[in-house]
Write a structure and sequence with these properties.
Length: 79
């Protein structure tokens, strides 16, 4: 393509001439990686909902016999 006297260098060629191209590309890749790892609002809401459900289903037993009784009940009920 013929050089147009009214156009300057591209951003990439300018950064390359100044020695900043590799650094700017590395920084852009790092920022993109961080952004892609951050959960969005919908994901955060789903994670919180799952956390609440897990907490509600968590059962606490005060002694081993109570655990064994609960297991017997579950077995008897066919769950």
């Amino acid at each position: 393509m013929a050089d147009n006297k009214h156009r300057g260098p591209t951003l990439d060629s300018f950064l390359e001439q100044e020695g900043f191209l590799a650094d700017s590309q590395t920084k852009a890749i790092d920022e993109d990686a961080v952004r892609s790892e951050m959960p969005n609002a919908e994901t955060r809401a789903a994670m919180e909902s799952a956390r609440v459900t897990m907490k509600a289903h968590r059962v606490g037993f005060t002694d081993p016999q109570e655990l064994l009784d609960a297991l017997d009940d579950e077995t008897r009920l066919g769950r």
